[in-house]
């Protein structure tokens, strides 16, 4: 993990306001959000990461969920950190897993895999966002050319610059925590139907996408 746990908690508390993401949601009867999934008790101040119960929990559960253990550990870790930083958000690891399943098959898209250090190799990059084929037109800030979504959670560069806490978008730990921060800022209370939908819709402005993530997340809570 490239972001220290203690520094991560401090930085996660500093959530910038989310501007221009998602827009107004339709006030209609919305299905209940996916359950948060179970997690072992974790001490965030633990010094010996070898004793981290999340690692064992992830190894035991990974086969049944069809999620790489290293990815599952990252989702659990991000959930624990956000529960400390923003307890009113009620982020569940199942939502992070649902997003990562849709975005990159948990870091496995195109034959990629997650190394022990949490970095996805080879790096996963989306198509050039050049406005063609129904894609958005987004320039890569600071570079000449079009932006491409990056990493297992497929952040576009300008979003990562704002939310990524100087981390690495190809690192599953950094990416999962960044996604958690973004979702909590966008949705408020993800234990509510409206909050959960608003958060995921802000992540990707597509009702089809929201339902894909919901379906995947519900499966992980089963």
TrEMBL record:
GO molecular-function terms, A-Z: peptidoglycan lytic transglycosylase activity
GO annotation, biological process: peptidoglycan catabolic process
SUPFAM superfamilies named among the record's database cross-references: Lysozyme-like
InterPro entries for the chain: Lysozyme-like_dom_sf (IPR023346), MltB-like (IPR043426)
Superkingdom classification of source: Bacteria
Coiled coil, from the record: none
Family annotation (CDD domains): Slt35-like
Protein name according to UniProt: Transglycosylase protein with SLT domain
